Amino acid sequence: MQDIQNYKKISVLGPTGSGKSFVSGKLSKILDLPIIYFDHYTWNPDRSPIDKNIFVENVLSMAGDKWVMDGNHSRDDELTKHRFTQSDLIVFLDFNEKDCAEAVKLRSGTARPDIPDYLIEDDNDTAWLINHIKKWFDDNKPQLILAQAEKYEAKEKFVTLKNRQQVDDFLSLLKKQFGSGDRI
After folding, report:
1. Which residues are CB-contacts of 39 (< 8 A; sequence separation ≥ 6)?
2. Model confidence over 21-32: pLDDT tens digits?
3. Strand bridging mode 35-37 / 67-70
4. Which residue stretches of 35-160 are H helix?
């Protein structure tokens, strides 16, 4: 892993409930990088999806020379290519389905910085999100992400974390490398 101070563009990927926004927030504080939360640009206030092209245009227009991108959106090759070729670090939270579903249940009804207030999840959303997690694994999205890393020659930029303990250890290592870690 290169020196943490050289990380200026970071992508955080993984299934719903894996902790992408938590990790993105910590990385943002450690490195003083702005976060682009995809969920802020994915949904309209009526919860309908924003047109894919508008979403991609919005995200890419904000992607300057420093960022943490929080979210997946593997459905768009232009954005995927940008992230995989431009990122200095790609953090892949390759968590299991059960842990992700439990995390979604625990966060239901909670305001979070990664989603606008009109998207605060309720019990109906929790059920939908658990089905979304199941579909993530049924559609073999982890293999798709790894195939994209291969396609864009980004495997050397990857850090794969499989559980919360590995996330804690990774963040602790980065804080230690950065110095005091007093931004956390």
Report:
1. 71, 114, 115, 116, 119
2. 999 999 999 889
3. parallel
4. 39-42, 52-62, 77-86, 97-107, 123-138, 141-151
